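From the pipeline queue, job 12 of 40. The input is one protein chain; the requested action is below.

Action: predict structure.
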Amino acid sequence: MTGTMASSALTSLSMMSLLSLSYLSWDLMGPNQLENTPDESFNDPASGLQPPHIIFIMTDDQGFNDIGYHSSDIKTPTLDKLAANGVKLENYYIQPICTPSRSQFITGRYQIHTGLQHSIIRPRQPNCLPFDQVTLPQRLQELGYSTHMVGKWHLGFYKKECLPTRRGFDTYFGSLTGSVNYYTYSSCDGPKLCGFDLHEGESVAWDQGGKYSTHLFTQRVRKILARHNPQSQPLFIFLSFQAVHSPLQSPKEYICPYSGLENVARRRYAAMVSAVDEAVRNITYALRKYGYYQNSVLIFSNDNGGQPLSGGSNWPLRGRKGTYWEGGIRGLGFVHSPLLRKRRRVSKALVHITDWYPTLVGLAGGNESMTDGLDGYNVWEAISEGKESPRLEILHNIDPLFNHARSGSLQQGFGIWNTAIQASIRMGDWKLLTGNPGRGDWIPPQILPGFPNSSWNLERIIKHQKSVWLFNISEDPYERFDLSEQRPDVVKQLLARLAYYNQSAVPVRFPSEDPRANPNLNGGAWVPWVADEVEKIESTVCLRKNKNTKKKSSLYKYKSLLRRLNIISNRIKNL
């Protein structure tokens, strides 16, 4: 054997050894030992067992094709192993952009019932999650949980009442806006509108910047796990990664394994996914090390489809982030837990992101009265035992403010629905889209260096006259065969369901941007800029006290001056 060949062999052997060691604790305590021994007394009040620890991990802008088990060019050994030994959710739906997915997870309500059915919450908008909504962490607090959030909030922060610590989380560490620099935590909302965005609770964490956010957030989760006693109180952690949202930034060591990818954006994006995969491995190890694993439920989900122009891929699905095609709303998701009764399988049960609220409240021991009026369903039996999903349909959204389709009309909608309005609904096997659903391209994996780019248009220019689409998603998951003309009976049925849902829609909350939010006016950081009622009262009292103090001070100075003048006058008289 030549020296080069020997060196190469030793390097490969070392890499294999390191990989084996990294999973040693996993294999020793792995799911093989638990495969046929589900906890029969789980969540039985008579058993006296503590409710499970819940770890919900959400990634940002990770595409359908951006995980190893979907035959991606991206390697995710940890996520693949967790999913393979748990339950993969292959009929799981999310929302096409950030704020809506997070709001639906936190409230269990469709956007039409929270007023957040249009776009996202911009950094300068005086808007946030409605105060009349009881959030998932608030319910879990009522059930005795210690609740913590780490990562991206993106649900508004114009006043302190909007902050995570006021909406059910005991602690919070992360960023409030939708996109920040992974190292400096600078977030910009336009030219000269940049500010620092990393927060510890309700304070700006100026001293925490400089470390890669995926590592920093993982470190915080591990610290929470290390400090908490798993036997004393159930734990809920919502880890909302900033990754893999743009900007495309990653430590160099994660980029090197993808040097063979000629597309630079894809290479950097893949590196960011690998950093997330390593982070999940470290968190899983911590769950075992600190005694949580045996009574834990770990859920993994993305928040919306990938953005191909920023390295993401939803192939072979149609569309991208920001659209109501499957590429924008078909989710990546799996559940890993020793408490699952049937593991190592793929679930085709229909699941929506609003379902996590009632499902987790149910796992925590809550009764049905705690989830009355929600749009979500408790899908635990469908996930854990393979039963039929209680969910039969999904309202993807109705957005009356989005650009109306020129070819749409009430007449086109058989007098039932104005098809100019952007809307989408799934019922059984059928999916209907109206209005302008967004760019409907099928974008292949990024193989060439400059592909795709802004000139990648295709379908959205060719077929611009439509305002109604109908697909049998079970038979045609890639949305290639529009059946709206062949099945007008189904179209009418789904249009009627849109009209039904629209009757309960609340007005859209999308206020104009407030110039007072400018970080330059708030110490250089993105922070709440509108005082709540208590703060107004306190500031008014303080202002009055200050005015009274100033008056007293002026009077004292005046009297003191008179005394001095009197003393001087007496001295002059005595001369």
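Job complete. Confidence is low (pLDDT under 50) at residues 1-47, 538-543, 571-575.
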